[in-house]
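Lecture notes, unit on protein representations.

Consider one protein chain, 323 amino acids long.
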Amino acid sequence: MSASNTATRLPWSIKVDEMNIPAIKTLNLTKSFGATIAVDKLTIEINKGELFGLVGPDGAGKTTTMRLLTAIMDPTSGEAWVAGRSILTEGERIKEKIGYMSQRFGLYEDLTVMENILFYADLYEVPKKERPQRTERLLGFSNLTPFKDRLAGKLSGGMKQKLGLACSLIHTPEVLFLDEPTNGVDPVSRRDFWKILYDLLKEGVTILVSTAYLDEAERCTRIGLMHKGKILSEDEPKNVRSSLGLPMIEVWSVSARSAAERVRKVSGVRSVSLYGDRLHIALEKKERTAEIIAELQQSGIAIKDFREILPSLEDVFIAMVEK
């Protein structure tokens, strides 16, 4: 599928503001629930046409951030602007400019694919004369045309996500918010979903997606690693990976868990990540590699092999959290 294909091309007409303001901007955005700070003085800017990934584990504050930016929830303090409008004073106008797909998007399982899309067209007050063209293009765009008469409750998880996305796009939003859209979806459907997002980028849509999958973070133009309501690092994925600034080695061992416990006690080791039978070990100095391997072998832990590697996003995230 190609965004240049006129048969499936979305009828997008994203307006470029003369002032070239960011699509999303936050300033010390904060949300507290009693003594718990869910979002802690968040300050970011997301440019128009970007695919920005908010990356972090459950409880990091990603969903709360989404709800604040979509004007569903009021902040405790701070301010944010979406499509040039304030979440504090122009919440209803923001909702006209955005699409929001929550973790539990409100599909009606006793309605067909087409009926769900038309229902959301009613909610967003899409002019009736524009609906046939929009629905046809959205069905083609999401590869749902063969299933337009199928009940939503009979769709696979991946197809439900595509339908949710189509419903979010029926009113041609400028900014699209996706809260962990591929959570629990099979790998093939995840891949297809991201292909659709890339085509949306070509149409000029700004996308903010939250995810706990670090491999998906690699697909974003920029990411923010989020932990306990704060952004630990914000940049292009490749720049975040290189930001660790520490040498890293990968070690194979049949006793990887025991090796990890042992290595964490060795001086000169900054962080340790476990991946099956492999360890990723961040070192303060590259020269420590031989000493680390010798230490493990002397402890009776068999080492299959080792090599120097570049850190993954997960390695960087773990190192930042431990630090």
